[in-house]
């Protein structure tokens, strides 16, 4: 069925921004990094990316077709954006030998173009107003590009700047706190600080997941990307399950 671009929803199709949101966001970034690495290195890279793109398209289509916000549908889409966004960034470097500085610049330009177009068309970048299909399309476009950009930034610090995964993770953990401090202490623009923090979750989560998964020769703990991916996937499933259970428990009971 075609997508209705004129559809309006009763409420925003994104979750509330709270501690659980940021925790799940970091988990999905970590999971997406190791899942992409596992499939790309274990199977044929071209087929892995193609399969990831197909699953990404199907899951995102399910999210776009949903009549309202559903926790499982939304986070399934975020997970696949994480996996496929990572693959897109990695393909540029591994498959086409594009330097990380160039890919970072490319994705940064794409993200700025997305935000500029979104702002001019919808006159807002607030995620609290994702209650029309066009705004949701802009939202998921921005999300996909932020994942690719964050992946390239994390790889650039780890490889090009020779910081390694652990030091990169610590650096991004520090920088990740700055937008929140700017918003709380200096009343910086809430939309700008949100998107800054959102972009930073990608290299933050990916750096620590790489540190857990890669070999000791590469500066990691050698747990294996498959094992790390499974661990984070399980945690995501548990947390999402708890959120869904609480939503159902808090829902009003209709009495006849």
Name some characteristics of this structure:
8 helices; mainly alpha; 256 residues
H/E series: HHHHHHHH
Overall number of structural domains: 1
Q: What radius of gyration results from the CA coordinates?
A: 18 Å
Helix/strand-derived category reads: mainly alpha
Strand content: under 5%
Number of strands: 0
- From the spread of the alpha carbons, the general shape counts as globular
Report the sheet with the most strands, covering strand number, pairing sense and barrel closure. none
Helix content: over 70%
Mean pLDDT: 91
Q: Report how far apart the termini are.
A: 36 Å
Q: How many alpha or pi helices?
A: 8
Q: Low-confidence segments, ≥5 residues, pLDDT <50?
A: none
Protein described:
The protein is mostly helical and 256 residues long. The protein has one domain (19-248). Helices cover 76% and strands 0% of the residues. It is built from eight helices and no strands. α2 runs antiparallel to α3 (71-95). The longest helix has 28 residues, at 133-160. The chain is globular, with a radius of gyration of 18 Å.
